[in-house]
């Protein structure tokens, strides 16, 4: 899959004790110093509360997004395009929908010594990237293990022009071959582009070959990716607390997002009594309730490698026709030769079918796909996050 030009976050551990119980618990990282006896600050109360739906706490009070609904940002694309033309901007794709999120982060006021005592790690470029795998990355230069810190305690990357007040939060997962410094740079760019506070979940690189293998596993919801664990736990906790969630995945990050969402979807199914409670006709009520819960997740894929997503969330995907990653691996418009080749390969072998998670088709119900054509300077420039941002309008 090649080298991602830039990237951002990834994660592994379970939520802290203040997290809702649906989140998986993971062992504390052995790389962190012991926590002090002084408890870390507790997260604020849920932004919203609501009455429960069957098998899940705190969801039926949400407004259900219309089927195949278009976000206000996308609906206003015509006006945005006119404004771009008048300003001479080359950005013609609608802005990243981001103003619906209700997750709020406040950072922390701890001293460096207090952060270290509580388990935060100052990011060191000389340390192995895996040291910070699955952790939240703060704008203060610290990595925060999710089993020791709630996301509300992580200092976010703040936008130059907030899209709303209070400023919504966006979770961000990066692609392959990305050191922590790359995740930090991408997070700040994303914050400025979306007008939201960005909290990266660091997806540590373990070398290109291992990263590519892990991407393949994420595409078929297999393996124990620490970034998947952290993102799934964060989304589950936010939904149970009645919050609306923004999440952006870049390159491998798109596969991480799909894996995490499918894990959240399965948790809801399990809470409703398992797959038998979601069968057609007999389980229609549970299925509708599950999709209602997930409709409060706003998902954006940029050059994403994920293709199998559960029904319910609001999906927007940005695809460069010259970028092989989304056109061969991810969500895209029908593209002729790549689709035909994938279908021939997967049709000749059950193993190839399983490895690819099916043929060239994809499952992202109701997705809005925004396509542009920019050869850039060839590979990997045509896959770079900066190339995409040149074509996506700023909030």
Automatic annotation (TrEMBL):
Bias type Low complexity, positions: 13-39
Domain PE-PPE: start-end pairs: 226-267
Feature: compositional bias, Polar residues: 48-60, 86-102
Location of region: Disordered: 1-67, 85-104
Coiled coil: none
Origin: domain of life: Bacteria
Residue ranges, compositional bias (Gly residues): 1-12
Alphabetical list of SUPFAM superfamilies matching this protein: alpha/beta-Hydrolases
Name this protein carries in UniProt: PE-PPE domain-containing protein
Organism of origin: Stigmatella aurantiaca
